[in-house]
Amino acid sequence: MKIYQKKSFQKLPLSIKETWDFFSDPKNLKTITPDYMGFEIVDGDDKKIFPGQIIKYNVTPLFGIPIKWVTEITHVLNEKYFVDEQRFGPYSLWHHKHFIKEIEGGVEMKDVVDYKLPFGLLGQIVHPIIVKPKLDEIFNYRYNKLIELFGEFDNRESYTRNETLNKII
Fold first, then answer.
1. pLDDT (tens digit per residue) in 83-95
2. Dihedral angle computed from the Cα positions of residues 156, 158, 160 and 166, in that order, rounded to the nearest 10 degrees
């Protein structure tokens, strides 16, 4: 059994509250998902996330084939993290942890997705050819969309340190 892991990091010039308000609203998931995926929430987006919440989606990730996807929000620690797990959908396992923490000038977000593909060896063969590149594309889209929506994180302190180091050397 092969379990894969995808990690993503991003810094945004937002407060913890602004970040939490955006990411804890299931309706915003459509905003940060590529249009070609045909992402539509069917049910469960009427409240901010809470443990036990079931969210149902229709999505078309590959070859125009529609898929029903059901996730459950299993853990929530307000303004710190939440976890969604697939209950029905394209993966044998999907466990997605979302972390946010305050840093100087904004927040740092970290996503950790542990996932397993169906179809045994066939799933392992298509992972590097189709699944991994598709997940990378989706997370890259999200990264860029969040910059478009909220602006780029400006870490002047690190620029100053780099400039100072360059002058010393």
1. 999 999 999 999 9
2. -150
